[in-house]
Design goal:
This is Protein SlyX homolog. It comes from Vibrio comitans NBRC 102076. InterPro entries: SlyX. By secondary structure, this protein is an all-alpha fold. The chain is about 75% helix and about 0% strand. It has 1 helix and no strands. The radius of gyration is 34 Å and the shape is rod-shaped.
Length: about 80
């Protein structure tokens, strides 16, 4: 009868370990899903920012240099 009790205890321990592993796996799956969602959102944001940056760079390149004052023509600041 002692042998049956030991086997029963061993089965309970194994079942508990299986339950623990299933719980950890479920938690990891949820974490992976949340990380994937966050990564997807960040990629969308990066794409938008790249588009905005291209627009700004294009605008800066198109600024007419004649609209800018020549540094030699600039009057010195009042404290000079």
């Amino acid at each position: 009868m002692s042998n049956t009790t030991e086997i029963s205890t061993l089965i309970q321990q194994l079942n508990q370990k299986i339950d623990d592993l299933e719980c950890k796996a479920a938690f990891q799956e949820q974490t992976i899903d949340e990380l994937n969602d966050a990564l997807s959102q960040q990629q969308i944001l990066i794409s938008k920012m790249q588009h905005q940056m291209k627009y700004v760079v294009g605008k800066v390149k198109n600024i007419d240099a004649s609209n800018l004052a020549d540094p030699t023509e600039e009057t010195p600041p009042p404290h000079y």
